[in-house]
């Protein structure tokens, strides 16, 4: 048991939140006491054991406040591990964003991760390790686990996207085969059974996130090309659960609230991911909370792999308005197929190297989240990406990593 005494001039709610998150990270029991006898003191004064800067917890801090080693500093110019962890963990750099991209998203190029080239670094864990040293607690030293996910944006698009690809190569036979699959209502991208069979070969489990709204919104954006309530989709949905895998909701870009969309899901889903990763903070966190979901898996950069909040584990975000932790767990997204195919436009070999290098740098103290869309499992338009996913699965099995489910994440990482 570690006792903490928080000085009176210190933002108590933020400190308690952060130390509870650190305690979950290190599997340590803590208590907040009313006097400093035999306690770790926390405050702005230089006499405190854990010192804080005057600007601790301010969402008005910008990336220029970080020093050359990517840390905020206390009043004495030393690294402020509490303030840095709070600032990064809660993505405070995004709260006053005035330069969103064309979809209204926070730009990777606006981030300190881009500025300091540190998107692959688990900096919050470094901060927590320093706090552990001060408290004489062994730092976290656990093998990384993997959270495998699939966003189901399209199941009928194969006849157009893959079909165009095979026709360009003169493979009319393959195109006719695709037409036949459509005719018998088994389009090539309605492939949950194949994905589950493949992952089961490697002793892996995954989550499928489904859109409940259908149709194109504008030239740039579209919801599902399938009707979630249709017999074919519902059979695939039920097959996922029957095989011990998980389903979740994929919040559409329609103006409906997340709460409204969960009503169409049939039962309250455990988790969500935002379509196109289209969200901003703190609005996204508020909407997940209002929908009474237990988990969200949206916090990732579309343009680049790595840590959007510089932390490798799921966590409860802090509600700045109510000064308490949100009740749901956020599972940051780290690797996505479209990042390499659409945004970086690199070849599959370079994508493989970057992905495996990222995994290698983070073999401990992470839940690494991977998103592979169902349409990337066919080898026509997205040639090479099926093999790349197999290599990811092989990497997981060969290194004896384990996958983790939504329910397990909630159980292991929630502080609420």
Written overview of the protein:
The protein has 416 residues and is of the alpha/beta class. The protein folds into two domains: 2-134, no CATH class; 145-413, Glycoside hydrolase/deacetylase (TIM Barrel, Alpha-Beta Barrel), CATH 3.20.20.370. It has helices at residues 12-26, 81-89, 112-116, 123-134, 158-168, 172-183, 192-201, 231-242, 258-264, 283-290, 337-343, 348-361, 385-398, 406-413, and strands spanning 2-6, 30-32, 40-43, 50-51, 145-152, 206-210, 246-251, 271-274, 295-296, 318-319, 324-325, 329-330, 335-336, 367-371, 402-403. Strands 5, 6, 7, 8, 9, 12, 13, 14 and 15 form a nine-stranded parallel beta sheet that branches. Strand 10 and strand 11 (324-325) form a beta hairpin. It starts with a strand and ends with a helix. The mean pLDDT is 92.
CATH superfamily descriptor of the largest domain: Glycoside hydrolase/deacetylase
Tally of alpha and pi helices: 14
User: What is the number of strand segments?
Assistant: 15
**Low-confidence segments:** none
Give the DSSP E fraction (strand runs of 2 or more residues). Answer: 5-15%
Q: Distance between the terminal alpha carbons, to the nearest Å?
A: 19 Å
Structural class: alpha/beta
**Shape assignment:** elongated
CATH fold category name of the largest domain: TIM Barrel
Helix % is 25-40%
Radius of gyration in whole Å, from Cα? 22 Å
The ordered string of helix (H) and strand (E) elements is EHEEEHHHEHHHEHEHEHEEEEEHHEHEH
């Amino acid at each position: 048991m570690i006792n903490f005494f928080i000085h009176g001039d210190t933002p108590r709610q933020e400190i308690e939140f952060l130390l509870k998150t650190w305690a979950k990270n290190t599997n340590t029991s803590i208590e907040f006491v009313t006097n400093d006898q035999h306690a770790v003191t926390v405050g702005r004064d230089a006499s405190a054991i854990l010192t804080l800067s005057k600007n601790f917890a301010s969402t008005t801090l910008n990336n220029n406040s970080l020093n050359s080693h990517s840390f905020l500093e206390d009043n004495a110019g030393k690294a402020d591990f509490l303030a840095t962890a709070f600032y990064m963990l809660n993505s405070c750099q995004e709260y006053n964003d005035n330069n969103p991209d064309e979809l209204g998203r926070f730009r990777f190029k606006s981030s300190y991760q881009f500025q300091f080239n540190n998107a692959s670094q688990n900096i919050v864990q470094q901060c927590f390790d320093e706090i552990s040293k001060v408290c004489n607690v062994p730092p976290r030293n656990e093998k990384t686990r993997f959270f495998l996910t699939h966003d189901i944006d399209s199941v009928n698009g194969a006849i157009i996207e893959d079909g165009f690809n095979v026709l360009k190569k003169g493979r009319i036979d393959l195109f006719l085969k695709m037409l036949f699959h459509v005719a018998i209502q088994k389009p090539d991208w309605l492939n949950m059974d194949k994905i589950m069979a493949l992952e089961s070969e490697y002793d892996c489990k995954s989550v499928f996130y489904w859109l409940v709204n259908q149709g194109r919104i504008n030239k740039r954006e579209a919801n599902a090309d399938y009707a979630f309530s249709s017999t074919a989709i519902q059979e695939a949905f039920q097959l996922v659960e029957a095989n011990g895998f998980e389903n979740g909701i994929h919040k559409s870009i329609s103006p409906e609230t997340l709460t409204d969309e969960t009503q169409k899901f049939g039962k309250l889903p455990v988790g969500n991911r935002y379509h196109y990763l289209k969200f901003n903070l703190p609005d996204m966190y508020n909407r997940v909370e209002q929908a009474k979901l237990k988990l969200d898996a949206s916090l990732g950069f579309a343009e680049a792999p790595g840590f959007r909040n510089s932390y490798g584990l799921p966590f409860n975000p802090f509600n700045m308005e109510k000064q308490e932790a949100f009740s749901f767990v956020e599972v940051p997204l780290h690797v996505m197929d479209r990042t390499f195919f659409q945004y970086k436009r690199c070849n599959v070999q370079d994508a493989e190297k970057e992905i495996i290098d990222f995994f290698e740098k983070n073999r401990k103290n992470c839940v690494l989240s991977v998103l592979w869309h169902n349409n990337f499992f066919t080898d026509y338009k997205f040639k090479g990406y099926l093999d790349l996913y197999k290599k990811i699965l092989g990497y997981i099995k060969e290194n004896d990593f384990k996958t983790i489910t939504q329910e397990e994440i909630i159980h292991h990482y929630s502080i609420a």
